Please model this.
Amino acid sequence: MTTFDLRRRFAAEALGTGLLVATVVGSGIMAETLTPDMGLALLGNTLATGAMLVVLITILGPISGAHFNPAVSLMFCLNRTLAARDLPAYLVAQVVGGIAGTVAAHLMFALPVLEIATKLRAGPAQWFSEAVATFGLVAVILAGLRFEQRAVPWLVGLYIAAAYWFTASTSFANPAVAVARSLTNTFSGIRPVDLPGFVVAELFGALIGLALMGWLLRPETVQQSSH
Model:
């Protein structure tokens, strides 16, 4: 199995998060431009994001693990899959890459390089939605790695596509993506003042997911009979 040094893993995480955010923001701008129907716009945003996740996890997973998400990196650090010394680099790569993705989307659509979002996304229902969305994401990743590792890109892409529609928050499930989306005043934006509630809810959901799946997936110990 090929191993990659931290610099290349950093680059993979930044690139993957950047392309993910460019897809989320760019497809939202395109959808909003093409149709006034909010449901149809969300559908376009959903399909593009789910498809891009499958691609990015498939091609970058072997390099960095394809976290693209501080909550996922924290989860892997806590279960000792990611070394604690590497966690800060992953977090920086994800946040910087995500902001670069917003910049790229804006430049492609001739918008200001960065904007401050004004879209209201706050309240208990939104926070609970983010906790549920991130809990589910962690559960899907851990169970997928345990039982069907090759299917993980599809599992994550399909889960996020579904979560766009069954959560009131449209499933950010990712602190780095939330930060990047606070810098676009378009379809996918979120007010900076609403970020803390989202980030706390996402991290809480990830921790609950890690705890529950750790119990569910723990192998049974077979006791030997003394007779």
